[in-house]
Amino acid sequence: MNEESGQSGQLRQSGQEPERSAALFALLGKRWTLSLLAALGRGDDRFDQLRAAAPRLTARMLSSRLSELVGAGLLVRELAAGPPPLVHYRLTATGAALGPALAGFDRCLERAAAATPGEEAA
Question: Which residues form the HTH hxlR-type domain (predicted)?
């Protein structure tokens, strides 16, 4: 499957907001995606750094997830010259724009964890 097909490609190709939103949430809901985006937001940008940020993540799954994020337009893959050549990943403007939303999810989860049973919503 090429990068422009399947779920990841839907983020770029679909002109309809509900479909684009569903594709984005499906990608974000995949295992390891949020951990990788958080690590990239902290400045980790090489394959080995990203793998160290999620020790239970296999190299094969990391490669697959990075490819999906690149295909979705959330990351850019850059090759740095030199022996040995190094691959760096960085958030695109779209990927970086997810930062505040993901921080909001974290705050929501923290509130939910701290709430006592039966506590009314604010």
Answer: 17-117
Whole-prediction pTM: 0.74
Classify residue 5: in a domain, yes or no.
Answer: no
Q: What is the pLDDT of residues 28-39, one digit of tens each?
A: 999 999 889 989
Number of domains, the chain: 1
* Domain with 99 in it: 32-114
Take residue 90 and report the two structure tokens written for it. 């960085």
Is residue 50 within 8 A of residue 39, CB to CB? The reply is yes
Q: Is 109 within the bounds of a domain?
A: yes
Residue 108 inside a domain? The answer is yes
b (16+ CB within 10 A) / e for 35-73: ebbbbbeeebbebeebbebbeebeeeebeebbebbbbbb
Round to whole Å and give the CA distance between 110 and 86. Answer: 37
